[in-house]
């Protein structure tokens, strides 16, 4: 049995601000190449680690253009929903999303949490489980999202749309591979972390994130990384290898670098802000703007940084304004 794993395609009809090529056309070429790789390698199934779409309800015109390419795919697709596939990153909204709609049509297969699927093909019995994104991903017990039991099967594969990593390389919620080595899954596939970490083997288990199929941000590492998919062979033993997409253009040809340095400096300052805010005691009883002012004073930051922090907080406040008890 052969499987091709891809993740974070973020299908969209327009360019993010920092892209200088035509992202939808580049993405279409990548998807055509992915299908070619699948056919040439006689792949039985394609697994997708989430963020299939960039928004939960993209236009039918855009979706149609991409689905014509997916219609050429010969192998069935199994997918978990990522935060971008859902309204408000809320799993209960899945039936109202386009991804949910495609699943109802039988165009793709969505894996639901806690519901294993068993596939028997070419003398291999595969157990497939998937954990879509949810609000508490990488915050609640890792056992609940990353650790699975292996039932009566030859190989167990678990997919998670969460920030799995081999080391803590950036701020925010992360789950480390070393925290989940007690999983009984032979292969754990993750998405969400766009930079990926490739294939890591630990205690006879494989942990894989080939990285996102698209480059959305102009993060420095996005400029230099390969755009990979992962071919998994379950013939006599488990064999996983990354295949770089030749249709992917060079990072320097698709990402605008002029704002890179400026942005990196701003991001660093915002990260310092976030950690300072976390350190402020009794923050629930304080007005968030007061906290920012306190941090500004403490770090001696510019008004620009303060303005940006306030802007971001207002966006979050607006997003959550419907929730009771939010102030
Ligand atoms: Mn993503």
Describe the structure.
There is one protein chain. The chain is α/β, with parallel strands linked by helices and 327 residues long. It folds into two domains: 2-253, Purple Acid Phosphatase, chain A, domain 2; 260-319, no CATH class. Helices cover 30% and strands 19% of the residues. The chain has helices spanning 23-40, 60-70, 98-104, 142-146, 220-224, 251-254, 260-279, 288-299, 303-319; strands spanning 2-6, 45-48, 77-79, 109-110, 117-121, 124-131, 155-160, 164-165, 175-176, 187-190, 198-202, 205-209, 228-233, 239-244. Strands 4-3-2-1-13-14 form a six-stranded mixed β-sheet, with helices on one face. The chain has a six-stranded mixed β-sheet with strand order 5-6-7-10-12-11, with no helix packed on it. Strands 8-9 form a two-stranded parallel ribbon. α8 (288-299) packs antiparallel against α9 (303-319). The radius of gyration is 21 Å and the shape is globular. It starts with a strand and ends in an 8-residue tail after the last helix. It binds manganese (II) ion (MN). Residues 8, 10, 51, 82, 84, 192, 194, 212 line the site of manganese (II) ion. One of its GO terms (molecular function) is hydrolase activity. InterPro entries: Calcineurin-like_PHP, DNA_Repair-Maintenance_Comp, Metallo-depent_PP-like.
